Batch of 2 targets.
Target 1
Amino acid sequence: MKEKITLKEAVRFHGHLGPYLVLGLLAGEAALKRLNCRKFFGLEVKVRGAGEKPRSCLVDGLQLSTGATYGKGNIEKLDGKKISIAFRNRDNNKRLKISLKEELARKLEGLKGHRDSEAFAGALYRAKPQKIFNFTTGG
Ligand SMILES: [Zn+2]
């Protein structure tokens, strides 16, 4: 749980490297840390605004990093225009919401083609969570 999922592992699971996959990894890792919750069974994840590709790739990154999966039923996709991810720690009911910073959302919209997206994804992987995400906590 302590070690970061590598890009190689993520690509092996998902099939290609893209920014939304990486965002899912980073958001999931940040949430586990901030909510101090147990990977796999200790949390619930609700993802909004990721209905279609490439945005929906987010969900695979989240499953990998949090261990919340469709098989276990503790992750679900909901309608929404903007991407936001709500996490709940099942042990203490603490909640955290993560959304994308405007600047990042604009950059994502401006990506052209596969190569561009792949390069951006690689750079994103090394970004600090507080630089790319907005965090909202709640009880
Ligand atoms: Zn993808």
Note: The chain has one domain: 7-138.
Target 2
Amino acid sequence: MIVKIAEKAGFCFGVKRAVDIALDYTDSHDSLLSYGQLIHNDQVTDRLSKKGLKEVDSLEAVYNQDVLIRSHGVGKKIYDLGIDHELNLIDCTCPFVKKVHKIVDKHYREGYEIIIVGNAKHPEIQGINGWCNNKGIIISSIDDIKPLKEGKYCVVSQTTLQYSVWEKVKIALSNESSEILFFNTICSATSERQEAVKILATEVDCMIVIGGYHSSNTRKLYEICMSLCNETIHVEKKSDLMMTNLKKYGIIGITAGASTPDWIIKEIYDYLLSL
Ligand code: SF4
């Protein structure tokens, strides 16, 4: 059996950085709070919770503690609360997300209305909105666009937005206002991972997609693989593969979502080779 791993499989730069910081910190400290779930991967969060990482959904009642801010980032109010509550914020906001915060903060203070293109329920979007006093207009596609009042506008995107959606929104909004600035803040990590898997899925007999069952980027990878290779399997960990007869395949491809650590990919790779 030949086993091939797709390029760009697994952790993106921002998630890897956040997990590495959390692992390092919990090595040398007894406890650490994470504001929200660090990443959508139970194996990683279980490992970190055994090392003393505890998840909290609110910091209102937290004082004088070390608190990790995950890669999705948070709004300005959390930083203000950190000062008021004397928290030691370990800021793992991905630098690409940080850049969006800076754009929004600057333009909001200069009197621009902020438009954010993305999923309103996603923590990254909620964090970005927190840099314009939660007054951003959030749209997920051209269908959400309503006529704009007179004024100046600044448009940013969720880092994982599909480029085709951004292009359509940009054209539609340009017709709505003459004073409108566009900042394409899409990060290439997601699209690069998807492009890499499109090549691999056509070269193999079976594709294994590793990642959390609730991870939207993993599900998207699964859909892409499925459209190119009928024999596609989505698993979270090695034990999920035990009941599957994999010996019948000559070439197996592996990819993994952005929240899947290297050690899980390696475990599955080694298992396949052992067959
Ligand atoms: S997808 Fe891009 S922006 Fe988001 S955490 Fe990863 S590297 Fe950062």
Note: Residues 12-15, 71, 94, 96-97, 159-160, 187, 189-190, 258 surround iron/sulfur cluster (CB under 6 Å).
